[in-house]
Amino acid sequence: MGLIALLRWPLEIVAFGLALAPFFSVLLAWTSLPRQVLVHFGPTRRSDRWGSRARIWVLPVVALVVYGFMSVASGTWVWAFSGRPELPAGAEIPLLLKPVMALLIAYANEMFIHVVREQEEVPNGWLMSGLTLLVLASPLALSVVTH
Predict the structure, then answer these.
(1) How many structural domains are present in the chain?
(2) Contact (CB, 8 A) for 38 and 44
(3) Residue 19: strand, helix, or coil
(4) Distance in angstroms (rounded) separating the CA atoms of residues 23 and 29
(5) Can you tell me the distance from the alpha carbon of 95 to that of 143, in angstroms, rounded to the nearest whole number?
(6) Cβ distance 28 to 109 under 8 Å?
(7) Tens digits of pLDDT across the chain (147 residues)
(8) Which of 35, 68, 111, 135 is the most exposed place for a label (fewest CB within 10 A)?
(9) Which own/partner contact pairs does 82-86 have at CB distance under 8 Å and 24+ positions apart?
């Protein structure tokens, strides 16, 4: 059993928790959100589009959809419900990307809430860039480790 197979449960738990985090974040913030909320940041990281408060649910839904698709790609559903411990061919990349993608979406969701509540003016560009770089670097790191 390889390192990735040993890390499967922890990776799945972290990814699932991070995929649910935006839902809880929106639920906790809901009563303090104004009727109009930020729905887009422009290239200068300034808010450039606002919409109804219900639009704040977009990122939590996206987080679960991404988690679901990456779970299919990594064989999570088959693994979890059939008890087969082996990873399907090519499952390592989506398995490792899943928590990173969930973290990126959870952070973006949190930034939207902070800007809408006027707790921050713009998102932290360095952190968002770092998380994006981590998403892009994960497959490369995996190929180095496994070869």
Answers:
(1) 1
(2) no
(3) helix
(4) 10
(5) 13
(6) no
(7) 466 667 788 888 999 999 999 999 999 999 988 888 777 766 666 667 778 888 889 989 999 999 999 888 888 877 777 766 666 667 777 888 888 889 888 988 888 888 777 765 655 666 667 777 776 676 665 555 555
(8) 35
(9) 85/1, 85/5, 86/5
Among 53, 25, 20, 37, which residue's Cα sits nearest to residue 110? 25
125-146 and 92-116 are packed helices; what angle lies between their axes, rounded to 10 degrees?
A: 170
Parent domain of 47 = 3-146
Cα angle 88-94-72, degrees, rounded to a multiple of 5: 65
Burial 63-91 (b: 16+ CB within 10 A, else e): bbebbeebbebbbbeebeeeeeeebeeeb
How many CA atoms lie less than 13 Å away from 126 in the CB half-sphere?
A: 0
